[in-house]
Design a protein that fits this description.
The longest helix is centred in the N-terminal third of the chain and has 67 residues. The termini are far apart. With 301 residues, the chain is α+β, with helices and mostly antiparallel strands. The protein contains four helices and eight strands; from the N terminus they run ααααββββββββ. The strands form two sheets. The protein has a four-stranded antiparallel sheet with strand order 1-8-7-6, covered by helices on one side. The chain has a four-stranded antiparallel sheet with strand order 2-3-4-5, with no helix packed on it. Helix content is 51%, strand content 19%.
Length: 301
């Protein structure tokens, strides 16, 4: 069989088709098909995950809904119990409001009372401080007076002195003037009897003893006396003014004799004092032994 020249042969037909459709189009078409397949698979996987997540979320929502229902049930129970409790207590909202109002009133009253009390305490404290200040001022003044008295006593002590008596016994503090004697009296260490004795044969009473002035020497400030005590007669000859003339009486301590101190020796008279211990004195001589002189001045501090 012959082939017509107008009909192409199979080889020519293949060559023709290959020349009309390029190969890269086929490749591109295959890539697009693969990409679409991959996208389809990815979309299906994502949809599957979303469906799974949605199912899990729904499950969790059911659990939460169940818990919420339980909570609402508990709240309802609590509300019911509260209403029952409120009814049992018998308090209404109005009564609660009244109680709250009363409590506020009491608080305000207490606050006002506290303020009043604070004001009163402040006034009392102010008055106390004023009184304390006044007392402090008085104490300060008294302290100054005490210091002044102490200073005076120290000055007086400086003027007063001890000396050895005619019996070689240390005397108490000796006065040399009336002012010194007044200071000794204020100290109150001993009993003091002032005297002015005239020259006479009759003894004169001086405190618990009797004294006779025998003679005087005004120029030398000397004198002689006789002391009668405990029915004993003691003569003290040629004594000097300011010298402690000492003697003992019944019951007196050996360290605390009686002392006569003459402050002034005049013509036919002496002036001075007798000092005796505080613990006691000798008995006075009998009344018929002597008659006190009108010029004798027995004095106790």
């Amino acid at each position: 069989m012959s082939i017509s020249p107008n009909i192409p042969s199979p080889q020519e037909s293949y060559n023709y088709e290959s020349t009309g459709t390029p190969r890269w189009i086929s490749v591109l078409f295959g890539v697009v098909i693969a990409a679409l397949a991959a996208l389809g698979i990815a979309g299906y996987s994502a949809q599957s995950r979303l469906s799974q997540d949605l199912a899990e979320q729904q499950k969790e929502n059911k659990v939460l809904t169940a818990e919420l229902d339980q909570a609402n049930s508990r709240i309802a129970d609590l509300k019911s119990k509260m209403e029952i409790t409120t009814q049992r207590v018998g308090l209404t909202q109005s009564e609660l409001a009244q109680a709250k109002s009363r409590a506020e009133s009491i608080r305000k009253e207490q606050q006002a009372s506290d303020q009043k009390l604070s004001a009163e305490l402040g006034q009392v404290q102010k008055e106390s401080e004023e009184k304390i200040g006044a007392v402090a001022t008085e104490v300060g003044g008294a302290k100054k007076d005490i210091e002044a008295t102490k200073t005076d006593l120290e000055a007086t002590k400086g003027k007063l002195e001890r000396s050895l008596g005619d019996m070689n016994v240390m005397s108490g503090l000796i006065a040399h003037s009336r002012d010194d004697l007044e200071d000794l009296k204020r100290r109150g260490d001993r009993n003091y009897y002032e005297f002015t004795i005239q020259k006479s044969k009759a003894p004169q009473r001086v405190g618990p003893v009797q004294v006779t002035l025998n003679k005087t020497d005004p120029k030398k400030a000397k004198y002689t006396v006789t002391v009668i005590a405990d029915d004993k007669t003691i003569e003290k000859k040629d004594k000097t003014s300011g010298e402690p003339v000492q003697f003992y009486v019944k019951g007196s301590s050996r360290m605390a004799p009686y002392e006569i101190v003459v402050l002034d020796v005049g013509k036919n008279q002496i002036t001075g004092y007798l000092a005796t211990p505080k613990e006691g004195g000798a008995a006075a001589p009998p009344a018929d032994a002597a008659t006190p002189s009108p010029t004798t001045t027995p004095t106790k501090p």
